[in-house]
Amino acid sequence: MEDYANQFEETVIEIKRISKKTKGGNTIRFSALVVVGDKRGKVGVGLSKAPDVSSAIRKSINTARRKMISVPMRGTTIPYSIEEKFSAAKVLLKPAPAGSGIIAGGPMRVVLEAAGVRDAVGKIMGTSNKASNVYATLQALKTIAKISRQKKAFKQK
């Protein structure tokens, strides 16, 4: 079990301090956004809250491991170009020639690197909210996987 746990790379994207007004004063908690991937086509995202930072990160990692998806790849890049919208975030993902690297901004880059994509072009449009951008990127990768499955099923018929 320990070997399985160590094969994933965990990246903390954002930690926020959350304050709630109660009768007894302010209650402070922390929210952690974490991306987990094996760099071989699997990636997951977790967002959790806890009274202290380390617990929030641990919970986020467990959530991300539970909600992992498989990312189809063509060589070192993604197979299709896609534009996806999640909440106020819009992302554009395109395949890139081998050796060009990941040309994408912050949160999108982390998700693609964790998934094992080495060459891709990405553009974040809309919001600058890191959580929304991460979820939009994950949604785009899910859509690519769905299209790939449909094309394989169509070819088999």
TrEMBL record:
| GO function term, MF aspect, one | structural constituent of ribosome
The membrane spanning regions, by residue number, are none
Identify the PROSITE patterns for this entry: S5_DSRBD (PS50881)
This protein's record includes keyword Transferase: no
Q: Which residues form the S5 DRBM domain?
A: 8-71
| Cross-referenced Gene3D superfamilies | 3.30.160.20, 3.30.230.10
UniProt keywords, alphabetically: Ribonucleoprotein, Ribosomal protein, RNA-binding, rRNA-binding
PANTHER family given in the database record: MITOCHONDRIAL RIBOSOMAL PROTEIN S5
Q: Which family does it belong to?
A: Belongs to the universal ribosomal protein uS5 family.
**Name this polypeptide is given:** Small ribosomal subunit protein uS5
List the source organism.
Candidatus Woesebacteria bacterium RIFCSPHIGHO2_02_FULL_39_13
